[in-house]
Amino acid sequence: MDTSTQVRTPHHKGTTALFKNPLLEKLTRTHIAVPISIFVVFAVSLIYWALHHNLLSFGAVLIVFLAGFLTFTLVEYLVHRYVFHMGTSTKTKAKIQYTFHGVHHDYPKDKERLAMPPLVSVTISVLLFLVFKLSMGNYAFAFLPGFVVGYASYLLVHYAIHAYQPPKNFLKHLWINHGIHHYKDHERAFGVSSPLWDYIFGTIPKK
């Protein structure tokens, strides 16, 4: 198997099992509203705590929140490009790539696999808070909310793209770019919630 980014074709309807163990299999699935709700509640709670206890001013919260949101869009791009589309030169890498993302390309309409399961979402959120708190102090109470709201926005956009027809406005380009990524060119349009970093790194789909 070569080291190129492996994404399987053709695209199938329905779903497939990733694990024989029913508990593990269940943990790979979630309704999109669950992680979005978790992230929004988590973000609001942290911001409320920071403002209520005078840890940050409202202006600082706003600026740092936006910085966290923008940072997520970069992380989204980099993870999608270099982790989800990693080279599959070994069987282990191929298995990891397929479990993380290849299965989504195989079954793009499987709505229960468009987000990380709740247990994983909560665990990552808590770990990120600890990392950010150690590295940036009280600013973590605004940076992490921006980061996880960015992720919630990504989940919402990604779900809408796969579940609904494109709107007749400027958001239509998100549907077009992601459709190109899935069905025409797997090595372009890695940004889902925003094409910003595709423009910056030269991976925007060619006209």
Description of the structure:
By secondary structure, this protein is an all-alpha fold. The protein has one domain. Helices cover 62% and strands 0% of the residues. The protein has eight helices and no strands.
Can you give the mean pLDDT? 80
Unreliable parts:
1-9
- The geometry reads as globular
> How much helicity do the residues have?
55-70%
Strand percent estimate: under 5%
Task: State the end-to-end CA separation.
Answer: 31 Å
Query: Helix/strand-derived class?
Result: mainly alpha
Task: Describe the largest sheet.
Answer: none
| Tally of domains | 1
- The helix-strand sequence is HHHHHHHH
Number of helices: 8
| Alpha-carbon Rg, integer | 18 Å
Number of strands: 0
Question: Could you outline the blueprint of secondary structure elements for this entry?
Answer:
Blueprint: H1 22-27, H2 33-52, H3 58-82, H4 91-106, H5 118-136, H6 140-163, H7 172-183, H8 196-201
